[in-house]
Write a structure and sequence with these properties.
The structure is a homodimer. By secondary structure, chain A is mainly α. Chain A contains nine helices and no strands. The first copy, chain A, folds into two domains: 45 residues, Orthogonal Bundle (Arc Repressor Mutant, subunit A), CATH 1.10.10; 149 residues, Tetracycline Repressor, domain 2, CATH 1.10.357.10. Helices cover 66% and strands 0% of the residues of chain A. In chain A, helix 1 packs across helix 3, helix 3 packs parallel to helix 7 and helix 4 runs antiparallel to helix 9. At the A-B interface, helix 5, helix 8 and helix 9 of A face helix 5, helix 8 and helix 9 of B. The first copy, chain A, binds a DNA duplex through loops.
Chain lengths: 202, 202
DNA sequence: ATTATCATGTTAACACTGCAAACATAATTC
DNA sequence: GAATTATGTTTGCAGTGTTAACATGATAAT
């Protein structure tokens, strides 16, 4: 009993898809609801049947993008099923690579106003998405416990997590935004840093 | 022969000042030329006598903010006139502290579209501002040369610079944007990380 | 000194934006 | 079959960046 084209079959999904594309192509500042609507061949207020506001649509787009990101990180983990340290290094590498390949996601993930809203919302609704970095965080925790077993010296777990995460996060941003200029292959440089023996005490 | 109030004495400076304040108070997304103009008690097109566009004004504001930032970093350097490593650590600390205290500058510095424009512009005009991180970068170079003298092992200078800068940059962003949640004193944690003996091979 | 020019402001108008209200019609429920 | 819901359109408003036409204070040229 398929009603092909009720009005638009599945406008909500298409808005997200075309929105993500628009964001990629024209940048965050040039993103507009009306353009997305036009891309879907629909009136400029139609999106309001599916999203409360512009930020609401952007949030949906961001969640979609987060899925890609999480998938990317999980693939890295699966490469080394039994080696926590290698997992973390590979994830750090994928982390940087992801934002080099999708620089527009940086703004989408971290620096739009909605980012705060996303945090609030998820507290109430979908806990799954609350920490898009769950995978990353867990790997750090695993390394922490492993490391603490090894020696008596108490390494502050928070310090380890922050420095670990901060390093890849910072490198990703510096490279993606081209604030750090380097003649060679950036990803190779990152790989060298992460795989060096002294990387963050690991 | 001072003509107090030709029309406005020094509107350009006031636009930058009030603009910076507006940016601080209402955030990047809520910043508008018309609000700045109103804050200066002037018509909404008056800014166009001093700035080509909205981005042009924002850029001027950003340069102003960069001055504050550079000053902050230089003060850190001056604390340890003869100790390169301590300089770098203190700068890293100030780096993070600055963005914790001025979170709105994160967007202004790194994630607005204008950031790219700023880079282009400075290539042509004011080279001084091209690298707002000159101070930071130089300190890294000094540490590099010092370290390389010590041992024969060749530490890739680029790797050292990227990991060093990336670490503080990433921590600053994670903390300022509250992506990294921690019960204690963030700055104390950062201090611990930077002053730990194994910090980035230094 | 008068005149022309420049600097700095204002007002009017345009296209674009997010958003709300009133309306239309397909789909679903009772 | 009637009432209700879901999804779309049209209309309208306030706010935005930007341009053009105009006014006038300040400065330079003659």
């Amino acid at each position: 009993m398929s009603y092909e084209n009720y009005h638009h079959e599945n406008l909500k999904a298409e808005l997200i898809k075309k929105g993500l594309k628009l964001l990629d192509e024209e940048g965050y500042e040039n993103f507009s609801l009306r353009k997305v609507a036009k891309a879907c061949s629909v009136s400029h207020t139609a999106p309001y049947r599916h999203f409360d506001s512009k930020d609401d649509l952007i949030m949906a787009i961001a969640i979609e993008a987060h899925h890609k990101f999480n998938q990317c990180l999980e693939e890295a983990v699966n490469k080394y099923p039994n080696d926590n340290k290698s997992q973390l290094k590979e994830m750090g590498y994928s982390y940087v690579k992801f934002f080099i390949e999708n620089p527009e996601y940086l703004r989408l993930f971290f620096l739009s106003d909605f980012a705060d809203n996303l945090k609030k919302m998820n507290h109430e609704t979908c806990i799954n998405e609350e920490q898009p970095f769950n995978t990353f965080y867990k790997a750090i925790e695993r390394c922490q416990s492993e490391h603490q077993n090894g020696e008596g010296d108490s390494v502050d777990p928070n310090a380890l997590a922050l420095s670990c995460w901060g390093l890849v996060h910072g490198m990703a941003i510096l490279i993606a935004k081209r604030d750090f200029s380097y003649a060679g292959d950036y990803l190779e440089l990152v790989r060298k840093i992460l795989w060096s023996g002294t990387f963050l005490n690991l």
